Amino acid sequence: MAKLPDMTKHKGFPSGMPGTGFQFTIRRANPRGVTPIKALPRRAGRDTLLHRVDAAFLHALWHHFGLEPFERGNLDAARLCILFGREIVPAEKDFDPQSYEALLIIDEKVARNSFPESFEDVFEV
Predict the structure, then answer these.
(1) d(Cα 85, Cα 7) in Å, to the nearest integer?
(2) pTM (2 decimals)?
(3) Are strands 88-90 and 70-71 parallel, antiparallel or unpaired?
């Protein structure tokens, strides 16, 4: 069996949004290779489940990392890609979109504008 790449597991980070099937973290590295992080179009309107899932994910990121850069690690690529290039941006000049060690950071101004509910102390699911 091939050795999987090392991947930081963010202890205490929620695994997903309860009752939806949407995950926020992955259990193990992808044996077929690291899924690249790239900006994906966001089609969810403000009153949709997908918007709530994205807001819940950003809420978890904000309350776990705040303004500090964070390693991609076991964070779900699909969730990151929806926010990437807007609310989540590279935190390093030589950002590698295919590295579990890539550093990201929340662009607070953009994130507060897009998802003000993510910055509340409690996020109701």
Answers:
(1) 22
(2) 0.92
(3) unpaired
Nearest to 100 by CA among 39, 41, 40, 25: 25
Angle at 38 between CA 75 and CA 92, to 5 degrees: 75
Q: Could you report how far apart the first and last alpha carbons of the chain are, in Å?
A: 39
pLDDT digits (tens, 9 = 90+) for 45-80: 778 899 999 999 999 999 999 999 999 999 999 999
Name the β-bridge partners of 25.
75
- Non-local (6+) Cβ contacts of 36 within 8 A are 77, 97, 98
Beta strand spans in 6-124 (E): 70-71, 88-90, 103-106
Contacts of 42 (CB under 8 A, 6+ apart): 54, 82, 86
- Tally the residues of the chain: 125
